[in-house]
Amino acid sequence: MPEQPQRTVLERFPAGGPRGSWPADEYAARQQAQGQPARVVMDLHTDSFLVITDQPAQS
Questions:
Q1: Radius of gyration of the chain from Cα atoms?
Q2: Do residues 55 and 8 touch, judged by C-beta distance below 8 A?
């Protein structure tokens, strides 16, 4: 079985934001602009959007 990459949650955003507002996507774009390979995923258990990176957390 292949090893799963370690993922780090950078930030969490509630899924029920105002219509037309995409704070998770905007945060991920700012992280990408700073060189951090971030992306947005949905956490169905908590009904929230997570901005994650596949790189280990920096100490």
A1: 12
A2: yes
| Sequence-distant (≥ 6) Cβ neighbours of residue 18 within 8 angstroms | none
Contacts of 8 (CB under 8 A, 6+ apart): 52, 53, 54, 55, 56, 57
**What is the Cα–Cα distance from 47 to 1, expressed in whole angstroms?**
29
Which uninterrupted H or E stretch holds 27? Answer: helix 23-33
pLDDT digits (tens, 9 = 90+) for 45-57: 999 999 999 876 5
pLDDT for res 45: 96
State the pTM of this model. 0.80
